[in-house]
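Repro:
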Amino acid sequence: MTSAATDARWLDAAARLAGRSRPASYPNPGVGCILVKDDRVVGRGWTHAGGRPHAEAAALDQAGEAARGATAYVTLEPCAHRSPRGPACSDLLVEAGVARVVAGVEDPDPRTAGDGLARLRKAGIEAAFLPSPAAEASLAGYLTRVHHDRPHITMKIAMSLDGCIAMASGESQWITGDAARAHVHSRRAQADAILVGGGTWRADRPRLDVRLPGLETRSPQRVVLTRGVAPDGVKVINTPAQVAGLDALYLYVEAGANIAASLLAADLVDRLELYRAPIVIGGGRGAVADLGLDSLAAAHGRWQLAESRQLGSDSFAAYSRLR
């Protein structure tokens, strides 16, 4: 008998595997699947570029006949709907003869929404949901799009110890060191789109690409929030509310104080990623403009530390929005 703790560990592993899908699986969610038999992994899969094959199909293909009698750990409920692009994953699992399926998140898509596991049970396969924070986090872009009709938004801020993002003159290159900047590029590579404000665009003309060896093709769509114009290949939106219309599951924001404040005030930011350099500027440009809070109490209870690490001489901390 497999314990809940063991199931949870395998779902955590499947969630890490799902990270390989991001952002190439767009417009489909990035899903991870691991097939386990006799305490041994017999198949692994993740959603491939463009959304096909699905994670379950890839894992079953790798496992072959070893899938029969195995347990499938999948971050998102196996789909129950057929499409011109491929069969339903719940049907594939039935055909492969798996003995058990554990899913970390119920699919909110009404075409599946519980029907995926119901189809498995009807075929005599043990199937259950085991709520998994790791699986849910790996599906953040998809779940935010479904529940809030917009991309999942990560805001990056690189600052000094005293909260400045630039000198009073506007000089900002570079506050952080090489390791932190490389980490930023790795984060860009996981986004479908990257946004800056018009002021940042006009002052710095940032490239907004990925410059890590081997990942250059993972540069996200460039977006500028401005009333002005931008060159070809750069999308323009005029208001923060228009981020909802972006063709993306994951939006990465590198903005100045005013755009940061507007997005935060509109409660559109799901994750804050702060890079802090061990320098004090004094009198420089602050990271975030006035949010219009009525009291200090209104600032509390909004953010929770998700991860932290040291990047050379700089520190990194990510915070998730509590909703």
